[in-house]
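Per reviewer request, we include the raw input and output of the structure prediction for the construct analysed in the revised manuscript.
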Amino acid sequence: MLLLLEHAPINRRGLAVSINAVGSGIGIVAAATVSLVLAGLLPPDQLAAWGWRVAFLIAAPIGIVGLYVRTRLLDSPAFLALGETARPGPLVRAVSTAKRGMLVLTLWFGAQSIAGYTLSVLMPSYLIRNVGLPPSEAYAANLVAVLISAAFTLLGGLLVDQFPLRRVAIAVMAGTAVIAVPGFLVITAHRTLGAAVIGQLLYAIFLGPLYTVGAVLTMTLFPTGIRFTALALPLNIGTALFGGIAP
C-alpha cells in the first residue's frame, strides 16, 4: 500500500491504493470460487475430511510468486531521499512521536477487520450452519458480495481523490456501523439465497471504501521515515485483537 501511495500523484492516491485493495479482494474471490467448486464436486463429509486441504495446495505456488516480487522491489523515491536518516530506530520514533495517529489507525483497522472477517470468513459457515443454506448457495452468495465489495473499493478510491478525506472516513465508518444489524436481520428473517446476497451486499457497499481510506490515512498521519512502522503496528494489532476473534 505504501509503495503505491508514495509513487502515486497526490490527486490519485485513493485510486492507486484502491487497486491494491482490489487485489486482496480478488484473492478472496478466488478463495470463494474454489470453495464453491469444491462444495459442488464433493459431498459434505469428504469436503470436511480432506477436500478443504485442496484449496491450500492450489494456493501454495502463489507464495513463490510473492517471494520473487518481494526480492525485486525497490523502495519509493520519497523513502530513498531520506538516506541513512530513515534507518535508526523507526519503532522507537513511531511510538514516541506518533502515538495518537497510531491509536486512530488501530481502532480503524480493528473496525475494518471486524467487518472484513465477518464478510469473508464468517459468512459462508454462518449461512450454512445458522441460516440453513446448502454450501453451494452459501458460497455463491458470498462470492457475489465479495465481488461487489471489490467494486466499491475502487469507488472509495475515487471518493478519496475527490472529497475531503475526513468526510469520506466518517461516512464509510458510520455506514458500516449502522448497517451491521440490519444486514444480519435481512438474512435471518428470510433465510433464502436472495436474502443472503442482499444482507451481505449491505456490508460490502461500505466495507470496500474502508480499506482505501485506512491506507490513505497513513499519508496524512505520519512522515515518510516512520510511515511503514506506524502503519504495520496498528494494522497487525487491530487485526489480531478484533479481526481474528470477529467470527
